[in-house]
């Protein structure tokens, strides 16, 4: 019998992953709080788009549920629940799906930031798994329509890293990794926490900066002042992660220590960081529309994850005695932009 998979939060990433898995024949139920999105999928299917012709298709096999209809899952409990909501919605999403898990069912965090502890607080550590989605960009640009705005990782970059909080390799993470290979490159990791913090460093360098400036990711990298600020963000976050004891992975192709040294003024490391980052600005054919999730939230007038991202880095740094002033600054700016007190502009970062 095929596993019953629920996607709690069928937005950009959740809808993209869930829709692709449904297209591949998996038993998928999409659960989302946006009524128009759910009704549009029911009426015409979920339209997915990507960088190639093969990535463009309409999914009509996925079941859909409004939040008010989730109780119907009592008739067919969920084996795997992929939570793909914003970090600030994690607790209620885990509570929503918990009563409908099968006896061996478990919850997977398919999110930015570090949310496994929140999920485990609801369903228990034994029912909690993490999936880090690295270097992927997707956009829910209108109800029922999701597009991927960067190329697949393929054999050049492993996008999905699946891991247990305790670090051991289990059958369930191997099975998850195999499912995710149908979406893009995937692997099992024994370093979930290091992978999580490394992704947080990466997000912390890009998401809030694009939200504050109103620029695309590529435009941020092409601007010398903004790129230098991004490097400082990366270096501070690396130093916090190191103090916390996380074994960090490469950040945007750079060894963590080299990026940290670049942030601290080492000329050779700065040249190395520029050489790694600047070419990425022109590498994406959809660079004119590619914006990270936080910048998309600002455009849509939605709450951002700035507190769970840069604010979290700053708070953890303060707790271990490692200052992260650039993250404090960025958190304050994006919060004010989110509230409408400031308009996004490169000038907010001195550019």
How would you describe the overall organization of this protein?
This protein has 351 residues and is an alpha/beta fold. 43% of the residues lie in helices and 17% in strands. The protein has helices at 12-23, 35-44, 90-97, 116-123, 171-181, 192-213, 217-222, 224-244, 256-263, 267-277, 293-299, 310-320, 325-339; strands at residues 4-8, 27-32, 46-49, 57-59, 63-66, 78-83, 101-109, 128-133, 138-142, 145-148, 160-163, 186-188. Strands 5-2-1-6-7-8-11-12 form an 8-stranded mixed sheet, with helices on both faces. The chain has a 4-stranded mixed sheet with strand order 4-3-10-9. Helix 6 (192-213) packs antiparallel against helix 8 (224-244), helix 6 (192-213) crosses helix 13 (325-339) and helix 12 (310-320) runs antiparallel to helix 13 (325-339).
Q: How much beta, percentage-wise?
A: 15-25%
> Number of DSSP helices?
13
Q: Give the uncertain stretches in residue-range form.
A: none
The span between the termini is: 57 Å
Keywords:
351 residues; alpha/beta; 8-stranded mixed sheet; 4-stranded mixed sheet; 13 helices; globular
Please outline what is shown here.
The chain has 13 helices and 12 strands. The chain has 351 residues and is of the alpha/beta class. The strands form 2 sheets. Strands 5-2-1-6-7-8-11-12 form an 8-stranded mixed beta sheet, sandwiched between helices. It has a 4-stranded mixed beta sheet with strand order 4-3-10-9.
Give the helix/strand layout.
Layout (H helix, E strand, L loop, with lengths): L3 E5 L3 H12 L3 E6 L2 H10 L1 E4 L7 E3 L3 E4 L11 E6 L6 H8 L3 E9 L6 H8 L4 E6 L4 E5 L2 E4 L11 E4 L7 H11 L4 E3 L3 H22 L3 H6 L1 H21 L11 H8 L3 H11 L15 H7 L10 H11 L4 H15 L12
Parallel strand pairs: 1-2, 1-6, 2-5, 3-10, 6-7, 7-8, 11-12
Antiparallel strand pairs: 3-4, 8-11, 9-10
């Amino acid at each position: 019998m095929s596993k019953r998979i629920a996607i709690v939060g069928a937005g950009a990433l959740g809808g993209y992953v869930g829709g692709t898995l449904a297209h591949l024949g998996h038993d998928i139920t999409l659960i989302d709080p946006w009524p128009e999105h759910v009704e549009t999928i029911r009426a015409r299917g979920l339209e997915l788009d990507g960088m190639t012709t093969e990535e463009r298709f309409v999914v009509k096999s996925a079941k859909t549920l409004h939040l008010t209809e989730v109780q119907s899952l009592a008739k067919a409990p969920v084996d795997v629940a992929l939570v793909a909501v914003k970090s600030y919605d994690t607790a209620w999403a885990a509570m929503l799906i918990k009563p409908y898990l099968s006896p061996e069912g478990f919850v997977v965090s398919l999110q930015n930031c570090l949310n496994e502890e929140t999920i485990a607080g609801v369903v228990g550590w034994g029912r909690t798994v993490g999936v880090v989605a690295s270097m992927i960009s997707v956009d829910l640009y209108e109800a029922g329509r999701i597009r991927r705005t960067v190329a697949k990782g393929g054999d050049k970059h492993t996008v999905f890293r699946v891991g247990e909080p305790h670090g051991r390799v289990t059958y369930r993470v191997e099975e998850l990794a195999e499912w995710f290979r149908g979406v893009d490159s995937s692997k099992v990791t024994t370093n979930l926490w290091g992978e999580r913090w490394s992704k947080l460093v990466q997000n912390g360098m890009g998401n809030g900066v694009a939200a504050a400036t109103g620029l695309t990711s590529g435009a941020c990298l092409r601007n010398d002042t903004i790129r230098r600020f991004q490097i400082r963000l990366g270096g501070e976050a690396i130093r916090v992660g190191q103090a916390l004891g996380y074994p960090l992975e490469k950040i945007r192709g750079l060894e963590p220590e080299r990026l940290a040294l670049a942030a601290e003024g080492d000329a050779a490391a700065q040249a190395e960081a520029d050489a790694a980052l600047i070419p990425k600005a022109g590498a994406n054919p959809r660079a004119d529309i590619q914006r990270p999730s936080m910048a998309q939230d600002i455009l849509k007038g939605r709450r951002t994850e700035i507190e769970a991202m840069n604010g979290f880095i700053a708070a953890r740094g303060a707790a271990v005695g490692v200052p992260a002033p650039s993250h404090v600054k960025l958190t304050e700016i994006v919060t004010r932009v989110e509230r409408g007190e400031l308009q996004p502009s490169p000038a907010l970062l001195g550019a």
